[in-house]
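Renewal narrative, Specific Aim 1. Our central claim is that a sequence can be written position by position from structural information alone. The example that follows is taken directly from our test logs and has not been curated for this report. It begins with the structure tokens describing the chain, in the order in which they were read.
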């Protein structure tokens, strides 16, 4: 057993079931130090006052537990993916609508400014946007309406504009889904896709992520996709090659690294969630998203605690993960 106490709950970003802070989620805060949260439509149905109270209650619960201020996040992309939308909040254009507009850069500014205004009013400090995956206009499937297009240069310009405006207005941006899911034929919500493109092709198509790092993006989210030309066996979620060699070293990203939701079929269809949580941390992720089930949150906590006790987790790397969050969001 190790003597040093590591707040393993700080490595998780969890969803909660309803519009208020429920007893089970409060227990995870008090007993396990969980201190990062992602909101969905199910959490905001009561409008601005209810949502602000929920965020305030999360802040108060973390303070009472002696934890840093919570990092609260939301997918507020625009178009088909905006958790805070009409009738309570203004409509944000989709990435596809931005590309098709007469002045796409101005519309990207509008996207970011509108999102920042909404999130700042609620105390939400991280937006899980922009999507930097390449996809042709009119694409179907998981990226329908969510991409800035198929041209890496245009996606880079619009993504960089979005990031700069959002972060200048006090909300952190998240470039997703690294290294890019535009070529997937299966939806990672249900299955684990494999993208067989060459390394040269993938490096070219990943240029929007490279430019987002240069723009100082606060966070990056990886994908549950296997890219055999980059890592023969593991999806990006578990890949030390993709995380450490490619994203951290080659692209130079030193910010906060998030998984996509570990409850997706692209993960749970291939092993236990506890095993996935440990593998994602070992790969180099700073925050693990578990968006629905409190039981699976506890499964992840149990697995991380066991891995810590057995000496599998590196305390220096865990400290670095916690520091990245503190530095990026002044918790």
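The sequence written for that structure reads:
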């Amino acid at each position: 057993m190790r003597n040093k106490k590591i707040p393993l709950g700080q490595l998780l970003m969890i969803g909660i079931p309803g519009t208020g802070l429920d007893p089970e989620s409060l227990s995870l805060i008090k007993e396990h130090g969980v201190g990062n949260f992602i909101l969905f439509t199910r959490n905001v149905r009561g409008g601005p006052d209810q949502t602000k109270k929920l965020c305030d209650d999360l802040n108060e619960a973390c303070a009472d537990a002696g934890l840093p201020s919570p990092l609260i996040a939301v997918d507020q992309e625009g178009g088909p993916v905006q958790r805070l939308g009409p009738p309570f909040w203004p409509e944000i254009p989709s990435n596809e609508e931005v590309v098709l507009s007469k002045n796409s850069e101005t519309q990207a500014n509008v996207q970011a400014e509108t999102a920042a205004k909404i999130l700042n009013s609620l105390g939400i400090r991280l937006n899980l946007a922009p999507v930097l995956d390449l996809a042709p206009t009119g694409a179907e499937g998981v990226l329908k309406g969510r991409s800035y297009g198929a041209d890496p240069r245009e996606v880079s310009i619009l993504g960089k504009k979005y990031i700069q405006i959002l972060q200048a207005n006090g909300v952190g941006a998240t470039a997703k889904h690294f290294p890019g899911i535009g070529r997937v034929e299966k939806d990672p919500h249900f299955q684990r896709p494999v993208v067989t493109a060459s390394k040269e092709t993938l490096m070219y198509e990943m240029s929007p992520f490279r430019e987002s790092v240069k723009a100082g993006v606060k966070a990056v989210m990886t994908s549950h996709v296997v890219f055999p030309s980059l890592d023969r066996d593991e999806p990006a979620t578990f890949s030390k090659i993709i995380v450490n060699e490619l994203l951290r070293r080659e692209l130079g990203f030193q910010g906060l690294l998030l998984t996509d939701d570990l409850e997706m079929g692209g993960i749970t269809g291939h092993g236990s969630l506890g095993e996935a949580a440990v593998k994602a941390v070992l790969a180099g992720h700073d925050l693990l998203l578990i968006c629905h089930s409190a039981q699976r949150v506890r499964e992840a906590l149990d697995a991380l605690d066991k891995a810590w006790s057995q000496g599998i987790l590196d305390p220096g790397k865990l400290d670095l993960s916690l520091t990245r969050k503190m530095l990026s969001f002044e918790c």
